[in-house]
Amino acid sequence: MIASGVATSYLSHLQCSECGRTFDADRPQNLCACGSPLLARYDLTRLAGALSPAALADRPRTLWRYRELLPVRDDEHVTTLGEGMTPLVALPRLGERLDLSRLALKDEGIGPTGTFKARGAAVGVSRARELGIERVAMPTNGNAGAAWSVYAARAGLAALVVMPIDAPGVTRRECAVAGAQLSLVDGAIADAGAIVARAVADRGWFDVSTLKEPYRLEGKKTMGLELFEQLGARMPDVIIYPAGGGVGLIGIHKAMSELRELGWYDGPFPRLVAVQSAGCAPVVRAYEAGERRAAPWGDGETIAFGINVAKPLGAPLMLDAIYDTGGCAVAVPDPELLDAMHELARLEGAFVCPEGAATVAAARRLRETGWLQRDERVVLLNTGTGLKYPETVTADPPVLRPGDPVPDGH
Amino acid sequence: MIASGVATSYLSHLQCSECGRTFDADRPQNLCACGSPLLARYDLTRLAGALSPAALADRPRTLWRYRELLPVRDDEHVTTLGEGMTPLVALPRLGERLDLSRLALKDEGIGPTGTFKARGAAVGVSRARELGIERVAMPTNGNAGAAWSVYAARAGLAALVVMPIDAPGVTRRECAVAGAQLSLVDGAIADAGAIVARAVADRGWFDVSTLKEPYRLEGKKTMGLELFEQLGARMPDVIIYPAGGGVGLIGIHKAMSELRELGWYDGPFPRLVAVQSAGCAPVVRAYEAGERRAAPWGDGETIAFGINVAKPLGAPLMLDAIYDTGGCAVAVPDPELLDAMHELARLEGAFVCPEGAATVAAARRLRETGWLQRDERVVLLNTGTGLKYPETVTADPPVLRPGDPVPDGH
């Protein structure tokens, strides 16, 4: 299931995303002393001479096909449930409705745990195991905690998860069935984060909170590598992404930079769009003010629970990615994203999570303002399956007795 | 997303599985006049000269890579959400526990709609569309109805679905969000079937009930084709499959026969094992009596709702597949399959549906009796994700206030 034994990681060191200080990649690391996230760096010059995109063709159809650009050194530490290489699905009927002729959905709902969080967990857990870490702890809005719980179980690691009491119910069950140590908090993800920080300080758990260890990001960046491959060594013109912690957006930007440095891609970067709910839009507010740092939002509220992140640690990196690519940030109100969720399902058969649906609503707005042009290649990134959010759909079917006919009109 | 325009279907005709009578494949067909299912037949002699397994390597990683062995003639009718090529995941830790050294899981939970039903719906809907059918109707235990609803939506077809009131709740939402015409029945799938039959007779719906049209089976057979490819042009020694309607089991057997006829495979067939719940085991009872037809079970009851099928139309074909391959049929009680579900998640990180978990319980029993040998290559077929069955897991985590520590012991 993993790439051939010939392939290995080209990881060289870690580097602070703000102050540039470097760190040993082969020891467990969290944030830089300056408080900013560390980024994994690879020996891309050497790799450019050793690997060509064509050599990937025969690799397994999981994210482990990018073995050289991932941090795990030894095959025996790779912890996989088959994650990655999610479908890129054409959306012709929705595209016609939105007046976008080349609209597609990168559907991360189709993967282990039903969300893109599986990517970060697979790589993060694999590398933690390789570095000898035995106990990982994290706050979560649900899906990341579920993903880390199941991958930790597979790797034989202990997992401590704290999530808001309002997080999607099924994610509790995922943590529980995998044997994680789960607590709920009557508060938001920041409150969960504070509880985890204390467990890390007092009880020796290793902190795998968003961007507080460098390898979850490496799993997420594979979405960008895959889009490049799936489009035939091209990039789309625009990628629309629902941004909470923003790791996927930052990761896609990092992937594009690495592809360019490898000499595999020399075209323009796709414009990266961060979509947030109008109920919690710190990055949109910062973007509209032209700033690089985002003030905390206060009490966020949205049905798109995964992007209810009032104070994302990665906001500067997200805003860098947006400015660097000529992208933008857009807020959409909950009713619009719920309508978009139904519209997508009825026209294209894709039942996506509210976060993913937000990208549909954003595409409509951006086309209406002319920011998107009709024939641009636009990819909507759906971060998870609608199956995990059954309450977003009202179903009130008639109940028949045996022998009844179907209701009139059917 | 679909196979190159060069590839096309080698479908030649339809043939009754019992009396052998042949039918025109390019007209809509349901059952034979003798009441038995029709099977799609291909010009395998001609195909053997035109295609080699190696030619598949560069094909898209969906079930449409088997374009020649599928019934859809024209690319424009292919209705896809990226289904197929689900992971084959090694289970080393569970294998050690069960004393099976080469145990793996074919994980159909990783696909559109989260179940293997997507395969049958993708091919069935595509071919229905090609034949000019505009309205499809079916009874379902939930997941097939959900899958047909979303693929019908994508293809622009109307769907009428009737399911038992006890079917998994999320499948109602899937039908609803896709715009299907859904009714519940206060009864079992046979009662739903009777209601659909009346709508077919009185209101002109096309009947796509299990095995009552020939193309759902063609989608399901791709599981067998994929296993052959994923194991490097080999077959496992044993495939353990949770059998309700049994279409997957019948399909895998059909796939093996076609591979042999093509000259691509000349080894022994894997022994096919049908697993049922002890609460609804008509096929197991028939197998134990050495019969080829299964008497109706009466009132079935099991938490593995998808295999609560008291009177499967395909029982003779299932039993043929079992006898032909030297397989067997096993019943497991609900508590065993629930335990197995948790065991699999804790050891391997895979959260599977109760039906899939039944295969774990069956493997344990078959190893204990010596029917399975330690070093045989055994594939468990998980038909769906546990995410659709949240009620099978108890989660009762502590609720903290902001600022609380995690509970002692965490």
SSE layout and pairing:
Two copies of one chain form a homodimer.
Chain A lengths: L10 E6 L5 E2 L14 E5 L1 H7 L37 E3 L1 H7 L3 E6 L9 H14 L4 E5 L3 H13 L2 E7 L4 H9 L3 E5 L3 H15 L2 E2 L8 H15 L7 E5 L4 H16 L8 E7 L4 H7 L26 H11 L2 E5 L1 H15 L5 H15 L8 E6 L16 E2 L10
Structural description of this entry:
- 2 copies of one chain form a homodimer.
- Chain A has a domain of 199 residues: Rossmann fold, CATH 3.40.50.1100.
- Chain A is built from 12 helices and 14 strands.
- The longest helix of chain A has 16 residues.
- Chains A and B meet through strand 4, helix 4, helix 5, strand 8 and helix 6 of A and strand 4, helix 4, helix 5, strand 8 and helix 6 of B.
- Strand 14 of chain A pairs parallel with strand 8 of chain B.
**Uncertain stretches of chain A:** none
What composes the largest sheet of chain A?
6 strands, mixed
Q: What is the CATH architecture annotation of the domain at 88-114 and 219-390 in chain A? A: 3-Layer(aba) Sandwich
C-alpha geometry of chain A: globular
Compute the separation of the termini of chain A in Å.
47 Å
- Mean pLDDT metric of chain A: 96
Q: Percent of residues of chain A in helical segments?
A: 25-40%
> How much beta of chain A, percentage-wise?
15-25%
Provide the CATH top-level class of the domain at 88-114 and 219-390 in chain A: Alpha Beta
Order of helices and strands of chain A: EEEHEHEHEHEHEHEHEHEHHEHHEE
Q: For this entry, what is the oligomeric state of its chains? A: homodimer
Q: Strand arrangement, largest sheet of chain A?
A: 4-5-13-10-11-12
Main interface: chain pair and counts:
A-B, 88 and 87 residues
